[in-house]
Amino acid sequence: MEIFYSTNWLLYPTLNILLGIFALIVLVQLYYILFVFTKLLLQPSSVEKKQWPAVTVVVCAHNELENLRELLPMLQEQDYPDYEVIVVDDRSWDGTEEFAETEAKAWGKVRFLHVRKEYDHVTPKKYAVTTAVRGAKHEVILLTDADCRPTTDQWIRGMAAHLTEEKQIVLGFSPYEKHSGLLNRLIRFETFYVAVQYLSLALAGKPYMAVGRNLMYKKSLFTQNKGFYTHLRITGGDDDLLMNEIATEHNTAVCLDADTFMVSIPKTNWSDWYRQKTRHLSVSKYYKTGNKVRLAILSGTHVLSWLLFLGLLMGCLWNFPTLLAYILIIGVVFGLRFVAQWIVLGLASRKLYNSVDWFAIPWMDMTLFIYYFVMSFVMWYNRRKKVRWK
Questions:
Q1: 10 Å Cβ neighbour count for 161?
Q2: Count of Cβ atoms closer than 10 Å to residue 369 Cβ
């Protein structure tokens, strides 16, 4: 403790101010980690249910023939009393229509709707989803993508178990397959951390998004909202912008049952991933103000905690050992955040398909810091460029 008494703190007013800002930013991060993200850890993974509503599973597909060959038999074999599967063939030219008229007829629960042209007033994906919802026989809609695979035959049952008279939306989780390579790690890191955010905030009464790869809602809620009316021409947002409008503290449930996870096939090259991420990120500017503020604070303090930690540490090292007391404080403050994040996200990963290995979480934290820092500039630079679905 002698080093703290011997340091003349009044000699470094600027450093004191920066240290105070750094501590405040870390406190904000700790609030999210300890009081928001931990809600995910306390949430039961499954619930009991005795009545099962009829469900329409919706799959939108654009040139996804090979994926449909794998996915549809899995959907056909789901253990659920009453459901149908609608595949919306969106302008495909890879033989999907011929497949629907031949092989797919063997699956009695599967039927196809074909979209043969693009419309000016609405983006293709939203038109495909709207077509499916309008054509659904049942009140409950469960969405996924052609490049997803259910982990068990309990997917529909587990998601539907969370529906109640009040809870009309169920948010599910969709991890990516594990492969080798830096890109796959980045995809899994980012997907896991986004899931921790939107699932935890939903449990905290602040739902703001979902992923259309694993999402359930009632048809009446969709139609009452006039579907995607307010963002028909915005590419993307068939899941998160819709949830931004209709999801509330009272009508939204979260499903963490491992039997309901829908595993997605990840992008394998950087250009495809970059196009996908810019499309996803481009719609966030249309979120409600409260949601934008919360997410900006979370990602902003993430980046600033690292920037200030590295900047202060390097600045103080130039005057070592005179500023040793400052170095110790900087290390302890950042260490509190680092350890808390490591523990909470490690436990969350165990609950979410072991998406990220425990030892990789520090690496993930630094990677996401770089990712947020870079993508903020990319999105600002591309703010006026048009994005597309496929």
A1: 20
A2: 19
What does the radius of gyration of the chain's CA atoms come to, in whole angstroms? 23
Q: State whether residue 107 is helix, strand or coil.
A: coil
| Domains of the chain (ranges, CATH numbers) | 2-39+291-381 (no CATH), 45-268 (3.90.550.10)
What are 142's strand-pairing partners?
Answer: 57, 216
Going by DSSP bridges, is the β-strand pair 110-115/140-145 parallel, antiparallel, or unpaired? unpaired
User: Which of the 8 DSSP states describes residue 180?
Assistant: S
pLDDT of residue 376: 85
Number of continuous H segments (helices) and E segments (strands) in the chain: 14, 9
Alpha-helical (H) ranges within 206-253 are 219-224, 240-246
Contact 246, 217 (CB under 8 A): yes
Give every CB contact of residue 199 below 8 A, 6+ residues apart in sequence: 40, 171, 173, 254, 256
Strands 169-171 and 110-115: unpaired
- pTM of the predicted model as reported, rounded to 2 decimal places: 0.93
Residue 389: its pLDDT value, please? 45
